[in-house]
Amino acid sequence: MFCLSELEDTVRVPPDLLKLPLEVAIKKVLQKLFLDKVLSIGLCVSIYDIKSAEGGFVLPGDGAPTYKVVFIIVVFRPFVGEVIAARFKESDSNGLRLTLGFFEDIYVPAPLIPRPNRCEPDPCNRNQMRWVWIFEEQEYIIDDSYQINFRVENISYPPVPTERAEDGAIDDDGLGPVSWWEGCSERNNEDDDT
Amino acid sequence: MSGEEEENAAELKIGEEFLKAKCLMNCEVSLILEHKYEQLQQVSEDPMNQVSQVFEKSLQYVKRFSRYKNPDAVRQVREILSRHQLTEFELCVLGNLCPETAEEAVAMVPSLKVKGQIAIVMSCGLLRYDLVLLTFFFPSSLAL
User: Fold this and answer.
1) Interface of B with A in 47-86 (CB under 8 A)
2) Which CATH architecture is the domain A2-76 placed in?
3) What sequence ranges are listed for the domain RNA polymerase Rpb4/RPC9 core (chain B) (predicted)?
């Protein structure tokens, strides 16, 4: 989920930004340093607020002032066990891939897809396999028609800190495409964009 | 967050600092990011160029997955959910997924179970009642 997180950092403001109001200049530097980066606390989405900026000392040999800044950022951070709403992206014989738009590495491995199920070639897309859940003699295709709720099972961090992948499960109560659950039909996502 | 205890939100083991940290519902993030975007529109002719991919896609995501759009309704949702002795984390998951029955709520937030059956039924019943009331008073805030 999204969280607000307070951080403290030493920020060097390059001379070309000094014509701007201090808060704007510091925000620009923070944006460059933090936006779109995956930190230990999560994926940084936006700078929320600057609480304080102290210092402004210019170190010898440097043309730029340095500030000690306390600020708050908006991060996205999944938790193991959290249920998150996502969209279907693609599927193959190993399982499904889901997306949030800003984060696309969500994998639902085959064992975590509701059983009984079957995997068959997708008639609409020759290169893809699609998954079908069989429940009480009804067949439910897992595709991008509806929002899919999944539970975070595992979060893996690759050795080089650029991306992060999540494993999800949709084989439990309340999980999976929302159309499967009674009373959820009003939450169908029928928008045409991704 | 210490690595000693395994993280598991289902049992609310998600690190002390995150339980106290400000968790945000998607509808709250939507207001925050939209406000940032509007600020950019005031200073730049081409705000789309100024925002990162992550910002743009996050804004799309929270706009799509927010049940409430009206700022007053969003404030009310947090206020109503705060009456039910939930942690920040539980509050946000419920506010994001909007379960309509106690069973759905427990499926989405298993940690509600340990708070006692009566408490769950009470809180979810009240939740639904309150959220239904909210929908009644703020019909324009319903996501379509």
Assistant:
1) 52-55, 57-58, 60-62, 64-65
2) 2-Layer Sandwich (3.30)
3) 16-130
